[in-house]
Amino acid sequence: MSTDYSNDQIAALQEKAKRHLWLHFTRMSTYNASDMQVIVRGEGNYVFDQRGKRYLDGLAGLFVSQIGHGRTEVAEAGARQAAELAYFPLWSYAHPQAIELAERLAAKAPGQLNRVFFTTSGSEAVESAWKLAKQYFKAIGQPSRYKVLSRSIAYHGTSLGALAITGLPGLKEPFEPLPAGGVRVPNTNFYRAPEFVADDETAFGVWAADEIEAAILREGEDSVAAVFLEPVQNSGGCFPPPPGYFQRVREICDRYGVLLVSDEVICAFGRLGYYFGSERYGYEPDIITFAKGVTSGYAPLGGMMVADRLMEPFHSGQTTFLHGVTFAGHPVSCAVAMANLDVFEKEDLLGNVRANEAAFRTTLEKLNDLPIVGDVRGAGYFYGIELVKNKETRETFDDDESERLLRGFLSTALFDAGLICRADDRGDPVIQLSPPLTCGPDQFNEMEQILRSVLTEAWTRISPHSAGRQRPDPAARRLE
Ligand SMILES: Cc1ncc(COP(=O)(O)O)c(C=O)c1O
Fold first, then answer.
1. Is the beta carbon of 233 within 6 A of some atom in ligand 1?
2. pLDDT tens, residue by residue, 277-308
3. Burial code of 9-34, b = ≥16 C-beta within 10 A, e = fewer?
4. What are phi and psi of 322, to 5 degrees?
5. pTM of the complete model
6. Which of the chain's ends, N or C, has fewer CB atoms near its CB within 10 Å?
């Protein structure tokens, strides 16, 4: 495939990037000795760099590009809207695109979640949900409720409130003190379940849900406002909920008057084969936060779906939800979201995920024969592959090995081999896959083949015989 970039242009762009651009969550010193990876265009399930080299987008950008790249009809919907009304705020005014989209989302969301509050991002959605929970409880005469429970290693965003909900100590430490009230509970990583429930996933789920109840009682039941949970937890490497987990959590939340917030910034819009992940797992949250896939990245948009009863205090009298952001529900983004949903419907993308998810799992599970692969887990088009030093004992890599394995080798080797995915060690080392919902068996095989060859090479590079961390008590290790 040819490209418009000459060698001189490529060099000039690198120079400007190295001098002026600051990449997110990226160790910038890397680029003292190497070039930034620059992606210039996308087409379907693939993206291309400046030299025209093709990469399978195994992460949908960043869990975003559900419909794939290069959809001109979606781009044109945005352009048309920009020409008609590029911008008007949702502060005191409405515009047709936000109204139509809110109605369309409400029709797809579970149960009573009929009200949409738009944002521009996932962090803002999470931040908004916590703020709404706090103001709602003040409005109904329960002002002592402000704390939020969330799971260890879970990522819920980077703004200070969302960061207080995030369960990754390393990400939070530079910004402490954070807003008070973030409390951790165990996650649902069955591969690292405590011994006493390690052989029974249902019992593990009961234990993990009951830990939420224990935390509510420990913190004081009238101090807890909400529990934030992803349908499948991303960070740590795709932890699906054990059977019955969400039903039990729902009961616990109801028992103590605590709001259940389903953070679906990744899991909504088809990632799990349904519009909302809560639908897949059969629970009705009080709030759903969303972003990413709602526009498939053709424009930025986020928001929260709110249950009717949470709106009640704001529906009468003089109470206003004292919160808003300039670009929330941007007309162009809403128009793009509508066009994105048209593609979902026209091409039955949810049906594609449901029809192919078993094949995706089976293809990835072939990697289980590699000594470095400890666990393959996930749901829908959302999978994590945990890497271990010893399959038998599930011993993981120590920090030094992890650094050499992930940063020193895997990330670059996978990219060079033509696969964009994520090698992450915010929990135990994992590779994550979250491809566009348009993918099928050909792409699954491509992923498996690239992973097989790169992981085989990784195993030869990392000494399987050197001493590593022993398997620690997961419950203790995971909590901040
Ligand atoms: C579950 C979850 N919540 C919130 C966020 C934050 O979203 P954003 O990066 O759009 O602020 C993310 C981002 O990946 C996420 O995965």
1. no
2. 999 999 999 999 999 999 999 999 999 999 99
3. ebeebbeeeeeeeeeeeeeeeeeeee
4. -85, 70
5. 0.95
6. N
